[in-house]
Design brief:
Structural class: alpha+beta
CATH topology of the largest domain: FAD/NAD(P)-binding domain
Strand content: 15-25%
Number of strands: 21
CATH superfamily of the largest domain: FAD/NAD(P)-binding domain
CATH architecture of the largest domain: 3-Layer(bba) Sandwich
Bound molecules: flavin-adenine dinucleotide
CATH class of the largest domain: Alpha Beta
Number of domains: 2
Shape: globular
Distance between the termini: 18 Å
Number of helices: 12
Radius of gyration: 22 Å
Length: 375
Amino acid sequence: MIVDRAPERFAGGSSRVSAQGFLNPTDPSATASYVSSLAQGSLPFPDRVTTWAEEACKNSSWLNTQGISTVELDVVEHAEFAALPGSGAIRKSRTVSGDGLWRSLLGALHQMDVDVLYNTFPKALMVGHTGRIEGVRASWKPGSDLTIRASRGVVIATGGFAASDRMLRRYAGVRGPIATAGSTFSTGGGLRLASAIGARMGVTTAVAGPYAAYRPPGCKTAVPVRFIQRGRIGDALVVDGGGRELDVWRASSGWGRQMEGTRWSSDNLREVGLGWIFPLDLWLRRQGGTDEALRRRGMDVGSAMVLPLTPTILNTQGGPVRDERGRLWSREGQVIRGLFSAGELGSIFPSLYQGSGNLADCLVSGRLAARAAFA
Ligand SMILES: Cc1cc2nc3c(=O)[nH]c(=O)nc-3n(C[C@H](O)[C@H](O)[C@H](O)COP(=O)(O)OP(=O)(O)OC[C@H]3O[C@@H](n4cnc5c(N)ncnc54)[C@H](O)[C@@H]3O)c2cc1C
C-alpha cells in the first residue's frame, strides 16, 4: 500500500515534474569510485556505495522487465565531474514513452493492484514492544484517523524538504526565502517521522541549485529560466528591446509549469502585459538604485525591461542515513527494524550532485528497500 498526503490530482511528487533523466551506468566498480568521490567521505556505510553501483547499472534492464522501454540520452556530457575516477562509466537515460518515469511506474503499480491512499497524512510511526516499526498512524480527513499496519515494513519515500523555508533553514542552513521548483508537498514530513523515533541523520546541507528563476504572482513555486543576458542589477536580470529578447522557458519540467499552469509567451509580450516584465525605470524607483553601471556597459537603459528573479532549488538531498539495504539506523547505532527509506530523502549524494542521480537513486533505493523488507 502507498500512502500519499497529496490529493490524487497532485500525485507523483517532484518525480512527475522532473526532467526525467536517470543514470544507467555501465560498470559497477567504476560507478562506485565515482559516487564515492562525489560523496567526499560523507556516506557512513561503505557497502552502500558498492551495492548502489551494482543496482544502478541495472536500472534500464529492471525498467524493461516492468514493460517500460528506455533510451540513452543524447547529451554532450554524461558525467558532470569528468575529472573524478570512474566518470567514464556514467550514462544518462530516460523512458521512451512521453508518459515519463512516474506515470509508467504508476501503470505498473495498477497492474499489480497496489492500493494508493491519497490525501492521507502519516502522523507517527507505530513502534511495537520489541522496537520494530509496525505501521503508521495517519489522518485521512480532519477528525478521522487511520491505523495502517505494515507486516513487512514501512518505507519512507516522501521526498525532501525543498518546499519548507523553516526546514531549509534548520537542516540545510539556507538563509532567506528560496522558492522550490519541485513538489509543494516536499515539506519534510518523512524527515520529521524518522527524527521523532530517533533515526540517525546524515549530512543534510546539500541541495540541487540554486538556479535563477521567476515566481509568477500567486504561484507557490518558481520556474527556472534562461535568458539572453544583457546585464544584472541586484536581484534582477535586465534585457533590452521591450522585453522581447528574453529566451523562452528553459525546460518543460517543474511544478509551476506542469501543476500550477505557468505559461510563457514566445515573444514575452503577454508577460509585459501582465506586468511581470516591466520598465527598468520603475524597478530603479522601487529599489532606489541607479542605472549608472548599465550605462557604463553601453546598455540602452531607456528601453530596458526588468524581470525580477528569485533563487530556486529543485530538491534537497539530506535526511536519515540508510544502509546498503535501505534500512534506517538509530542515533545509538542500532538498525531500526521494519523501517526503510528511498528516494531523495537521505540520498546517496550528500555532497556533490550528479545530474540524473536522484531518479537513479529512487529506482535503486526503492528496489533495495523493498527487497530487504520482503527478505
Ligand atoms: C524541475 C525539476 C527537474 C528535475 N529533473 C531531474 C532529472 O532529470 N533527473 C533526476 O534524477 N532528478 C531530477 N530532479 C530531482 C528529482 O525529481 C527528485 O529528486 C525526485 O523526483 C525525488 O523523488 P522522491 O520519490 O524521493 O520524491 P517525490 O517524487 O517528490 O515523491 C514524494 C511523494 O511523497 C508524497 N509526500 C510528501 N510528503 C509526504 C508525507 N509527509 N506523507 C505522505 N506522503 C508524502 C508526495 O506527495 C509525493 O507523492 C528534478 C527536480 C525538479 C524539481
